[in-house]
Design goal:
The structure is a homodimer of 222-residue chains. With 222 residues, chain A is mainly α. Helix content of chain A is 75%, strand content 0%.
């Protein structure tokens, strides 16, 4: 696979008129590469939303992406790798959100962090390539049957929960949360609000950021 | 199907030596019927936990139950009906829990109701026929692709959320929750704690009732 990958990459570079050598790849090629990767991930999201996570094959993704099999395999060796990329893309926007939240000097409450996260989930779900939260719910089920998906989900969700852990510690330092509680336990409960919101939004359909944030404000200490 | 069902039922009653007429079925037959139903539901849980929700067929359930196809179809016409029964059995224990909670004259907080529910989830998950929460997660995914499963999930979860709604109203009456908030919105957030707990328990594995309840106590108003 590695030799094939390098050959394909070299061919692509030659075809694009850029240098054959990876060490001197100009910036435009890296942009091109990112755009192609995005094209494949978007195609996978379309397939998974239309056909279901389980039924979607690499062949479906290749067809939808309108790239060659070699091009797609040059970026992703398996459906599992694409799933990891979909999760990474969706959650990287949440990473940025938490960076911004933590950059503020204002006292930061778990409530404020959760309100911002719920808004972000709905923004991410509304992306043109289809609702990524529908793929997430299917990935949860798949994770129970497929060890590789489980490891991906576990890694991504531990990272997301890690953000809530930082918020809990910050709230303890700011005096908005009991300093004697294990912040890991608080992070577990904060994390729950996100899949709980996603699930009700998809299965019941009457939950919006406005209703949910009103519930959060009533229920959580502030 | 209805005629076949009645024929099978009649045959079973004759074989058991009881009256042919449904209107005069003695109590032992109703018990026998409930035991058979339980046998089928338990077989389905075993299959779904071993093979996955999606892959499990009626043929698998029939084989695992060690009953005839006619007997099984006499109770459940489809996998969807069995799923509804699994959900009903699991959630009926939660119905009882809420009845008991609401029967008390003590002031009732959302926190206390959630703590009791988390304990109950773990009790139900530990049943001998296999962890029903693993089936629930798979049913969430299936609900996005199968309208019938979606309606079952929606109905069951609206009922569970209805319990939290009653708790929220009671807490407003008791003065432990802001009376100006829409209790439906509070119920949405309370409901979230359950799938959020289940998911972390299955995918990450480090969440226990003890850690989660500690997080709830720190985060929720009391």
């Amino acid at each position: 696979m590695s030799v094939l990958y390098r050959l394909l990459k070299a061919r692509q570079l030659v075809k694009n008129g850029h240098s054959f050598y990876v060490s001197s790849v100009p910036k435009v090629t890296e942009e091109h590469r990112l755009a192609r990767r995005e094209q494949i991930v978007a195609a996978a999201r379309v397939c998974m939303n239309a056909e279901g996570f389980h039924k979607t094959t690499m062949a479906d993704v290749i067809r939808e992406s309108q790239l060659s099999a070699g091009a797609v395999y040059g970026y992703f060796k398996s459906k599992e790798e694409i799933v990891a990329a979909i999760a990474e893309d969706a959650l990287s926007t949440v990473d940025e959100l938490f960076e911004n939240l933590l950059a503020s000097d204002e006292p930061l409450t778990p409530l404020a962090a959760l309100e911002a996260t719920v808004d972000q989930v709905v923004r991410v779900a509304g992306a043109p390539a289809g609702d990524v939260t529908r793929i997430a719910v299917q990935a949860w089920a798949e994770a129970l049957r497929n060890e590789e998906i489980r490891e991906i989900a576990k890694g991504k969700y531990c990272k997301l929960r890690g953000h809530f852990l930082v918020i809990a510690r910050r709230a303890q330092a700011d005096g908005t949360l009991d300093p004697d509680v294990d912040p890991q336990h608080v992070a577990q409960v904060m994390f729950s609000m996100i899949p709980g919101f996603v699930l009700q939004r998809l299965l019941i359909g009457d939950v919006t950021p406005a209703t949910y944030k009103a519930g959060l404000r009533a229920l959580l200490r502030s």
